[in-house]
Amino acid sequence: MSDDKPGKTPETPAVDYEAFGKNWAKMMEEGSKAVAAYMEPRQKGEVSDDKSAEWGDVAKTFGKVYEFWTTDPNRASELQTAYGKQYLDLWTATFKRMTGDTQAPIVSPDARDKRFKDEEWSTNPFFDFLKQAYLLNTQVAQHVVSDADTLDPHTRAKADFYLKQFTNAVAPSNFLWSNPEVLRETFSSNGENLVRGMKMLAEDIVAGRGELRIRQVDADKFEVGRNMALTPGKVVFQNDLIQLIQYEPTTKTVQLRPLLIVPPWINKYYILDLNPEKSFIRWAVEQGITVFTISWVNPDETLAAKTFADYMTEGPIAAIDVIEKITGEKEINTAGYCVGGTMLASTLAYMAAKKDNRIASATFFATQVDFTYAGDLKVFIDEDQVGNTEKMMSEKGYLEGSRMANAFNMLRSQELIWPYVVNNYLKGKQPMAFDLLYWNSDATRMPAANHAYYLRNCYLDNKLAKGEMEINGVKLDLGKVKVPVYNLATKEDHIAPAKSVFVGAQLFGGPVRYVMSGSGHIAGVVNPPSLKKYQYWTGGKPDGEFEAWQAKATEIPGSWWHDWRDWLVDHDASEVPARVPGAGKFKPIEDAPGSYVKAKA
């Protein structure tokens, strides 16, 4: 972005002050409803505002940063001197611009930063000063953290995370009087945008039962079973934790081995069946595969004691038992996504120890089994924070789905929180109808026992990778898993980084095909060939260092889906007549997508 020429500042719209006054009164009325929605559940004791544990961790983290800078006074003095000149230059440049002179910017936003795209952030000296002062302050704050070289990596990561939350929150683009685009909208509509925005704010606090649940999507435009999760099928089995869906074939013959998909239990399975165009499940059925998928229950307090072992035995293992009885096949293919893949890997190791050979191949989508280089979520993982989460879960028996959704949003708050605050509550506009964000907001709860076990054994202690994880008295050794593995990573993944997936791929004892897709944790997986987007890389076995593999890898345009299908056929090309759901021993319970997936948190 260049500020070399001041350009023409957009004209301020004419204001109807009578209409503006009326709308301001309406806005205050809607604001009082928002306050009431916030206060009511607190007055009833339904919501606690005790954030002492969270704020205590913030204080402890920044205390260590403060200690670094105060133990040597010269450090702070040098930092102050380094940036003092830039502040002085900014003041001088702003004064000269106000007198009609042209000045190059002292600091400019990143080209990908959409907050300052409006031309007035550059053409208007006042807004340009706000923008540059904010960016300069942010730079200083970032150096305060990054230059504290005595901090351990985890503390620095937490300090950087907390700092980003603060700096993203105080950006001038987030406030009415310091955002030129919002000001123009306010004056041109005589404040109607603020009335709409405050009304949505009240609605979102009510929807969050006293907590602000920022809408990221126009939820009225979507409904599971109406325009999402549409691949025809039947629920053929259910227990306390899962419904098992078998999909109707669209080909006369199908691959001999059926496919079981194990989705993450912290999200709903239909990420793989968003709509007909994006559905991996529909595509796999069209490729002549008998597809089964697990649809996890949205648990409540009655399932608080369900353990990781319960999820494994009542989830994948129970599903495998049913599939064997339905199809008569002793061998099946499997696929797991994200933590569903971690569960699948654990199941494979458990079954290997039990000499159970019914899984013939495993595919992992953006899955970690070694958490040494785990993604940004590790910022939430240490003994204190896991302990606080366990305490929180013990009160209700589960972790609210919104807590996990908020954690994911906070990792990218500049893109997933504040743009929606501005769009919804300041501009008064409904967010776009975007299926992926609808799925993202359709959160599931996590039962206390299972989630605590997962956090401790995987993220905190990395026991699965070390061969120390134990289920029902059986130690899990991924080296004993000899089946062929297709291991998909995504290049820009901040949840399961490609390097982390690469390191984990080396733990399996059989042949592994490691593939890296373009884009991130969702788009890199849900990338149908018809869209002709992104690319993928292949480079042989995942041996040695990830960086060396990546440097030598071959880039292939388009989706990895066909590569996976070819890999599957290479391991078994046998075919049988198509299998119709309900034709075997297990009669249909209900149509897909079933009832478990429709339960709201």
TrEMBL record:
Source organism of the structure: Variibacter gotjawalensis
Domain Poly-beta-hydroxybutyrate polymerase N-terminal stretches: 112-284
Compartments reported by the entry: Cytoplasm
Residues covered by the AB hydrolase-1 domain: 286-527
Keyword DNA-binding appears in the UniProt entry: no
Cellular component terms per the entry's GO annotation: cytoplasm
Main enzyme class: transferase
GO molecular function: acyltransferase activity
InterPro entries per the UniProt record, alphabetical: AB_hydrolase_1, AB_hydrolase_fold, PHA/PHB_synthase, PHA_synth_I, PhaC_N
GO biological-process terms attached to the record: poly-hydroxybutyrate biosynthetic process
Name of one Pfam family that matches: Abhydrolase_1
EC number(s) on file: 2.3.1.-
Sorted UniProt keywords: Acyltransferase, Cytoplasm, Transferase
Protein's UniProt name: Poly-beta-hydroxybutyrate polymerase
Source taxon at top rank: Bacteria
Gene3D superfamilies: alpha/beta hydrolase
